[in-house]
Design brief:
The chain is mainly alpha-helical. It has one domain. It is built from twelve helices and no strands. The relative contact order is 0.17. The longest helix has 30 residues. α3 runs antiparallel to α12 and α7 packs antiparallel against α11.
Length: about 230
């Protein structure tokens, strides 16, 4: 298996940009669709200065920012060692400090969207609440498994920075005994659960956008990176 140094020695602009035209196109289409589905309310109440539609729009914007930053960070570190050149041994710590606030903003702004929003999904709270709990429970389990078994340094893309992280064995334990992709496949179910628990249409739109867009990241950015780091 080629080392990260070997990958960098053979890479060029084509490798750095692989999948990113598709990323941009799908991001634009998803954003247009999500914004079109957001339901404004005249004279809507405000929470911390924003209406439910305001929080929904901000949540979508922050998700876009997060994934564009991650795509740039992953590719420039893997192919050009950007963070290592700039920050030396603190490269992964600096990257984590950039990555984590943007990641945390996604559920936080979703919760604030649901809290502020007055547009119902169905109005059938007896159905929405248990369904929301049913989706939130595996998401919490998946997040626990990610932190305990996958670990934070792998979750933020540490294999783009360190050979010793790339050399770690496949993850086992918790949700990873049942799926190789517990974060995107299971953890993001919690976003749908949050929207259903609030009974918020605009939060549901945001949840759908975020879940669809994270899979765009998986196929446009992570999948090509994983092929280079681990082979086909």
């Amino acid at each position: 298996m080629a080392t990260i140094a070997d990958i960098r020695a053979k890479s060029g602009l084509r490798q750095i940009l692989e999948g990113q035209p598709q990323h941009v196109l799908l991001a634009v289409l998803l954003t247009i669709g999500a914004v079109a589905l957001i339901a404004p309310v005249p004279d809507a109440p405000r929470l911390l200065g924003l209406t439910g539609t305001g929080w929904a729009t901000l949540s979508i914007a922050l998700a876009l920012t997060h994934q564009v930053v991650v795509a740039l960070g992953f590719r420039l570190q893997l192919h050009r060692a950007l963070f290592t050149r700039l920050f030396g041994a603190r490269d992964l710590a600096i990257w984590t400090a950039i990555f984590m606030p943007l990641l945390a903003a996604r559920p936080i702004t979703l919760i604030l969207t649901g809290w502020a929003d007055t547009v119902p999904i169905t109005g059938l709270r007896w159905l929405e609440i248990p369904l929301g709990l049913a989706l939130l429970a595996p998401a919490i389990w998946g997040m626990h498994s990610t932190l305990v078994h996958f670990t934070l340094r792998r979750a933020v893309g540490g294999d783009h920075f360190r050979e010793e992280i790339r050399a770690l064995p496949p993850v086992r334990g918790g949700v990873f005994d049942h799926t190789d992709n517990g974060m995107y496949g299971v953890v993001f179910l919690g976003f749908w659960g949050i929207a259903l628990l609030f009974g918020s249409w605009n939060a549901l739109v945001v949840a759908a956008f975020q879940h669809a867009y994270i899979w765009v990241h998986m196929y446009a950015t992570e999948a090509p990176d994983m092929r280079r780091l681990y082979g086909p």
